[in-house]
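INTERNAL AUDIT FORM
Audit reference: QA-55
Scope: verify that the stored structure record matches its stored sequence.
Auditor: D.O.
Record contents follow.
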Amino acid sequence: MFCPKCGSPLSDDSKFCAACGEKIEIKTEDAPAEAPAAEPEAPVAEPEAPAAEAEAPAAEPEAPAAEFSAPEFTPKPKKSFKGVAIAITALVIVGVVAAFAVFANDIKGFFLRQFGSGEAYLEYVGTVAAKDAFEAVETAADDAIDTLKKDSIGGEGQIKVVLGDELVEILEDIISNYGEDISFDGLREIVFDLKTSMKGSKTMMKGSFKLADATIVSAEVVIDEDGKLYLNLPEFYEKWICVDNEEIAMAFRQSTSTDKLFKELPETSDLAKVLFGYTTSIFDNIEDVEKKNVKVEAQDVSEKVVLLSFSLEEEDAYNITKTILEEMVEDEDLKKLLEEYVTAFKGYITASVEENADFFEDMYSLDVYGLDVEDMLDEIDDVDVVGEFEDALEDALDTLDNVDDFSNEELDVEIFVNKKHEIVGLTLSFDGQEVIEWIRAQKGSKVGEEFVVYPGGDLVYGGEDDEIVYIEGTGKASGSKVNMTYKIEVYGEEICEFELRDFKKDGTAGTIKVTPDKSLLKSAGVSGIAASLIKDISVELSFDIAKTKAEYAVKLLTGEDLLIEISISSKETSASGIKVPSKFEKVSDEDDLMDILEDVDFDGLRKNVEKSKLGDDLKDLLDDAFDELENDMY
């Protein structure tokens, strides 16, 4: 079967021509058969004509194809993987570059450790350690400054004191020895809460003192934009008090000037960058560094490390100092940074003096010297801090240039570095005599550590043979935390044991427990009640510090029993609204204050004490104390 239009061959069941799109009409079997039978040659000869015509359309296949819009008959192009291959190659290259950027520092350290000189590897290790230290300080400083820069900020804090049963019993025993029988029932917690809010030029503070689950006394302070202080003590006095005092107002205005100062200070990163440059200068000037692989051991834990050893003579220290001073003289970045700090502080001082001109004139008696505030500000502006700094550097260099005699004393230094390029050990020897030895070895999660201070002539004084200080520690390190137990000896006598529990390596969280040795307490001559109190005493410090909150707790324990715990917590919050009181009594002098004190009473305190869970003995004791205070006031 062929297409009647272009002559292309078709299958028997085709409805359209795939070449030109012509619709094919299929004849049914009902059509009459006599006509084709009468002239058999005609149908046979008919395909020849279309076949001859087929070559013409074949030369221009696009024209007939354009007339047909059915997508299912459009020939599909062959797939090309060239673009995909290019995309995959590009992704691989980007991945390799990104990985190199991330691990380039480790790669550099690896090659310097394996193939570099001792000087090159020492410089790398030293600068990495210095960089980590600078970054930690920079982060802490930036967080503090960012907080001080805020125009609107709030905060909440709490100080809590918890008394243990053991301490309460001891206090009752001590009091009974003086002939008094007082029960401390209900006295277990003392809490002081504080809430602050700073918004624009106004400040608000609220505080409360709680005893045995009851608020005993509370206070609220508001400082307005002019520095006036408003005070409310509801347990003592029913009205707000306004204190209009110039010294208080000046202190407040100075605090707002301080806010401006922190906004104008240079970036901490700029200072860290400049100081970091001088750290590298120190290592640049250390020569003849020997590098070798060694195995160290501490408390039965061994580790393979790299030992970097070198010697420093007095002349070496002289050369390092001179090099750094010469670099500082030529360091334009340092001078620019110093100028920015000076400008910021001058602006702060100028603003503070201008806002409190009368106070400064009286305080410094400027009129006696025929001066005023403007004269004072002119003198401040004339101070050339950068010039004086440059002169000081030049004077120091002149002093060094006059030094021409150096001693032959040597300081031998050994630095131990692990595979992570971290310093894990140090020994110092002065004129061949070992002074300090420290090593920390880790194998898997197991850690051993030793620190020794030896007698060292002019550097460290002590006996001829004994170790002055010896510290040994064992424990485990896992991820970012360590758990260690240390024992400390001084001149061969154990004085205490301290533990690190869940201690983060960056120093932001953990627990430290210190337990004095019993023999130390005995040798100190402690006896009686004190001896029974501290026979198994220990101190435990816990802390958890984050960017916007901090928690600290100190526990005094005897064995496992709590004597007393003091905890402090604080966190940053959003600033709340500050409303300046419209009704108040003004205090401008001592007479105004005495008038108010005559109306102060302690009835509010007595009511709050009655609401508490304190025992009757303590309630009576407090009531007597309030009576004495009232009598003294009146």
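Auditor finding: record pair retrieved intact. The CA atoms of residues 528 and 534 lie 10 Å apart.
Action required: none
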